[in-house]
């Protein structure tokens, strides 16, 4: 199916957001929700290229963007020089993006992985008037606590120490180990092409984090009430996916959403954190079937 492809850079208070929009004429009544993809903290928006290609062919319009401080989205020099540097509101950024890029009265289905899943959930509980559903993949949930193992805690502390020491290469390598292989898995488990892609992303991200100009070094606004405490308020379908080889906390958080939200479908994949990278065909078919069953049948 043919899509009208547009892209641009949108100004926000703290800098600029890079976005890409594939708009499809679905040939029906034009009421399908737009799929709004939100990437992980160890990637940029290109994480979702395979899903966008697959779903555009199925008639879905897709919007992707780089979170502030990732990919082609950059914090402004003025913002970076601020002292103190105020945290920014990612939900407000999504509001600005949605209103600037999408047709008026569009509804959306936020689809997020990792911190993108946390944002997708936060947006769903706070903007239910424009959200038709949500897809949460390998995400943490605000207000939900579950301990990791001691081994996992050690490797996460090491990752923090490498950033603090300014070791970009070491930090990037470890991010691939944690989020590519899985923190409790053998190093090198992820296939070489995927590991190379993750390393490419993380060399850039870790460099920004070491210099405090991007990545997770930029602080975000915490909601007054964590989204995890509002799961029972969600009245739209929710799809949840996680990898069985992922960190302990993430697996528990995704299961918790499945057990708590009202209309939820949960899928476990034989993967670690980056489910859509490791198992693209199975993931695409699962997501496509879920969208078909809830919005087209």
From TrEMBL:
<protein>
    <recommendedName>
        <fullName>AB hydrolase-1 domain-containing protein</fullName>
    </recommendedName>
</protein>
<dbReference type="Pfam" id="PF00561">
    <property type="entry name" value="Abhydrolase_1"/>
</dbReference>
<dbReference type="InterPro" id="IPR000073">
    <property type="entry name" value="AB_hydrolase_1"/>
</dbReference>
<dbReference type="InterPro" id="IPR050266">
    <property type="entry name" value="AB_hydrolase_sf"/>
</dbReference>
<feature type="domain" description="AB hydrolase-1">
    <location>
        <begin position="33"/>
        <end position="278"/>
    </location>
</feature>
<dbReference type="InterPro" id="IPR029058">
    <property type="entry name" value="AB_hydrolase_fold"/>
</dbReference>
